[in-house]
Structure formats: structure tokens, C-alpha cells
Specification:
There is one protein chain. The chain has 460 residues and is an alpha+beta fold. The chain has three domains: 143 residues, Orthogonal Bundle (Triger factor/SurA peptide-binding fold), CATH 1.10.4030; 121 residues, Chitinase A, domain 3; 99 residues, Chitinase A, domain 3. The protein has 15 helices and 13 strands. The strands form four sheets. It has a four-stranded antiparallel β-sheet with strand order 9-4-11-10, sandwiched between helices. It has a four-stranded antiparallel β-sheet with strand order 5-8-7-6. It starts with 15 loop residues before the first helix and ends in an 18-residue tail after the last strand.
């Protein structure tokens, strides 16, 4: 098939937005030659939809794209439109809060690509964040509806141990992935206490800041720029943008959704430190606010005290006065792991196993010289999310050398691979069924495409 002339100019730093579900390409000025190339139910696919993705792929690809790349893109778009068509047939609904929440999540990611400077994003795209939000609201709503339909297709799929074993047996040995060295750990955590005196001194200082702002001596945003210790918002005057209910920790959210718009809160405490916030706007389950955060500083005395406490617990365990898991239940202050026998799960995969390049320096230092089953002595630890300092004991539960994937060591991963194959088969069968029941028309320029599915065999 001959390639059509490009109708959109390439984008540069925004190519990643395609993968995230936004398409921020700019149309060329002047007349644009465009046409409908496919219809699924009442959903249309334009030539520009295909070309927009081609120019983005060309911008990010180091190798030449396949000759039939336009056919491949069209088939993916046909699948997405089929999902959306079914969502309309089934009257699938998503709430405004869901759409706004997803918009906010993606916008925060995009703004992060510009070092947190939303003005740079606006300059690159040529529109304000509010205008971008409005432009992509319907697109995100459609994507969420399509995702809901696709999840329903595979919702009831389960894998039995027998199916996992059969899947593994049929895999060619040379196709099995090489698994890096991995570890499993459990820990017992004791956080350093912040003195009441320090908290009160910080609270009084922030009350003084609030009074300065109310008296017009300084603006909230200026005070946030110079005093806030939140790296994500300080440079923006503490502005957190529009955020949906359920995003903040409970203490912060309670204040953000309760004080009147335009009012500045009294200082309040969360796991991250001491805050003061101002509500700028509120609509339903979304709030636009800015804040100042000051983190608690742990003194040398407090660190020594918590290390001694943790060392005492270590001595109890190593002298067999108490076993490690009973000690976790009795002494650990990490709420996320306490009820899981101290097991630290990998947030990237949701599994217990960690590759060595995934663990933080604190963990690496704690386990470096441990054998499987051994317990480390007290080691300094800083919680990544909150920045809280602690001492902890780490137990190395397992450690594997690099190896070919096998059922004994990698059952959970192989189970997910087998489930993925089963889910893909279910989706394929669903597509074939819905094609036969749906009105689909494809432009003659694409009739010769070698599609995976027979899109031209649709219902009239």
C-alpha cells in the first residue's frame, strides 16, 4: 500500500504522551486533507488519526517502521472503536470524578517531564493546562469506558495449577526468559520519635507565617517558595493543582475538603510533617489548593534512642526470647508490612521478589552480607514516601542467582504469563464475535491490509 502524504508535523518532547493516552500533536496551519477511513457503529476513524500516530512513532523510533505500519495502527484503532461501540451498546458509564482524576494523574506526569513547570508544558503545546484539560476530557472518558469493557471480557479468567504447568511445558526452552538475581525480605521497623517541643516550635512558627500572609506582609505562594519542603510543589508556590478526593492522606484531605474556599488552615500534622494549606477552589469531589510543608527533623538523641530500642529487640530475637514474626507483630511500626509478617512487597510488580537493581541503598546495605534466613542488626532507614527516619531489622527470606525461568522459583511470574495468554485468547474470541454483529466499514485504500481479524466480514 502506498503511503499517504503526511498531514501533521512531528512533535518532539511530547512523543511520550501517545503512550500515556494523550495525543498533543499540533495540526499544520492551512488546509488539512483528511477523510474518514473506517466506521465502527457510530464511531469513526479519520486518516489524521493514523498519520498522527505514524509521525509520533517515526519521531521516537531508531529503525525504519514496517511498510504496513498504517495497517497495524488502523487495526489497533478499530479494536479501540469496537470497545467504545460496545460501551455505548451496554450503556457503560464513568463518573466525572473518575475522568477528572485520570486527567489530573496524567497531567501531573506530563508536567513532571518539564521539571514540574506547567508553563513550559503550556508553551510547548500552545494552550493552558485548563484548555488541555477541557480538550482531552471526552477522550479520557472514552478511554475509561473502553478499559471497563475490556476488563469485563477477562474479569472471570482464572488459572489452575494444572493450566500453568501445561503452559510452561509447551514453551520452547530457548524462549524462556533469563531471570536476574532476586531477593525476598521482611523487616521490623521502629520510627524515630519527634519531640513534642519540636512540634510545638514548628507549629508556632507556621502560625506566625499564617499571620504574615493574612496581614499582607507576604503572599502564600512566596512563603511556600522560600519555606516549603515539598519538592513537587514548592517551586510553584505550593500549588497542588486540581486533585480528586481520595488522593491525599486522610488528615490532609479532611482539612482540604472542610475549610471554606479562600481560607488558610491552621498548621496540622500528617506522616509527612507539618502543613498549612489554602483552598483556592472546590467543585464536587475535586479541590484546588496550595500548601506549605515543613518536615520534622529528627535529632541525634532521638536517633540514638530508637537505635538502642531496635538493638534490644534484635537481642530478644537472637537469644530466642521471641521469634522474628512475633516481634514484628509486637514491635513493628510499619503499618504497610506489619500484617503481612513484615514482608516488603515490590510496588512495581506487586510481588514479593525484588531484583537487586530495584532495591534502595538502605536495603542493599542491610542485606549485603546476609545469608538466606539470617537477620541483620539495626540499620538506619529512611522511608521513601514520607521521609521518616527509622531503624529496622531485615531478614533475608530468599535469594536466587540468575537463572532460566522455572516453575519452582518463578511460579507467580509464569502464572501471570499463562493468564495473559488466556486473556488474549478471550479478547480475540470477543473481537471475532463482535465483528460479526457490528456495522463496520473500511475505506477501499485499506481493504488490502493483512489484518489479524476479518474486519471486512462485519454485519450490514
Amino acid at each position: 500500500m502506498q503511503r499517504r502524504d503526511k498531514i501533521l508535523k512531528p512533535i518532539n518532547t511530547l512523543i511520550v504522551l501517545l503512550a500515556m493516552g494523550f495525543n498533543l500533536a499540533h495540526a499544520q496551519e492551512g488546509q488539512v486533507i483528511d477523510k474518514v477511513v473506517a466506521v465502527v457503529g457510530e464511531q469513526i476513524i479519520m486518516l489524521s488519526d493514523i498519520e498522527r500516530q505514524i509521525v509520533q512513532l517515526e519521531s521516537e523510533s531508531r529503525s525504519k517502521l514496517p511498510e504496513d505500519i498504517d495497517c497495524q495502527i488502523l487495526e489497533e484503532l478499530l479494536f479501540q472503536r469496537l470497545l467504545l461501540h460496545q460501551a455505548e451498546v451496554d450503556s457503560v458509564e464513568v463518573s466525572e470524578a473518575q475522568v477528572v482524576g485520570e486527567l489530573d494523574r496524567r497531567l501531573r506526569y506530563f508536567i513532571g517531564l518539564f521539571n514540574g513547570d506547567e508553563k513550559k508544558l503550556e508553551a510547548e503545546y500552545g494552550k493552558t493546562v485548563a484548555e488541555i484539560r477541557e480538550e482531552f476530557y471526552d477522550q479520557i472518558e472514552d478511554q475509561l469506558k473502553s478499559q471497563q469493557v475490556q476488563m469485563e471480557i477477562t474479569a472471570d479468567i482464572k488459572m489452575t495449577p494444572r493450566e500453568v504447568k501445561e503452559y510452561f511445558k509447551k514453551q520452547p526452552k530457548d524462549s524462556l526468559p533469563l531471570i536476574d538475581a532476586q531477593i525476598e525480605i521482611a523487616h521490623l521497623v521502629r520510627y524515630a520519635e519527634i519531640s513534642t517541643v519540636q512540634k510545638e516550635e514548628l507549629r508556632k512558627r507556621m502560625v506566625d507565617w499564617k499571620n504574615e500572609i493574612k496581614e499582607g506582609v507576604v503572599s502564600f505562594s512566596t512563603k511556600a517558595i522560600f519555606e516549603s519542603e515539598d519538592p513537587g510543589s514548592a517551586s510553584k508556590g505550593g500549588d497542588l493543582g486540581w486533585v480528586s478526593r481520595g488522593t491525599f492522606v486522610p488528615e490532609f484531605e479532611a482539612i482540604a475538603f472542610s475549610i471554606p474556599v479562600g481560607q488558610i488552615s491552621d498548621p496540622f500534622e500528617t506522616q509527612f510533617g507539618m502543613h498549612m494549606l489554602e483552598v483556592l477552589q472546590r467543585r464536587g469531589d475535586q479541590v484546588h489548593c496550595r500548601h506549605i510543608l515543613r518536615k520534622f527533623k529528627v535529632g541525634t538523641k532521638e536517633l540514638i534512642n530508637i537505635r538502642n530500642e531496635t538493638d534490644s529487640i534484635y537481642n530478644l530475637i537472637t537469644s530466642d526470647s521471641i521469634d522474628f514474626y512475633s516481634a514484628i507483630n509486637r514491635f513493628s511500626q510499619d503499618k504497610d508490612t506489619k500484617n503481612a509478617k513484615g514482608v516488603v512487597y515490590n510496588p512495581q510488580t506487586g510481588e514479593r521478589k525484588w531484583r537487586m537493581d530495584e532495591i534502595d541503598p538502605y536495603t542493599f546495605a542491610g542485606i549485603e552480607n546476609l545469608k538466606v534466613g539470617e537477620l541483620s542488626g539495626p540499620s538506619l532507614y529512611e522511608e521513601e514516601r514520607s521521609g521518616k527516619q527509622a531503624y529496622r531489622l531485615i531478614k533475608l527470606l530468599s535469594k536466587s542467582d540468575p537463572h532460566k525461568a522455572n516453575l519452582k522459583q518463578d511460579y507467580q511470574m509464569i502464572q501471570q504469563m499463562a493468564k495473559g495468554e488466556k486473556e488474549q485468547l478471550a479478547v480475540n474470541n470477543w473481537v471475532k464475535q463482535k465483528i460479526a454483529m457490528s456495522f463496520i466499514r473500511i475505506d477501499e485504500d485499506y481493504q488490502s491490509c493483512d489484518f489479524r481479524f476479518n474486519w471486512t466480514n462485519a454485519a450490514d
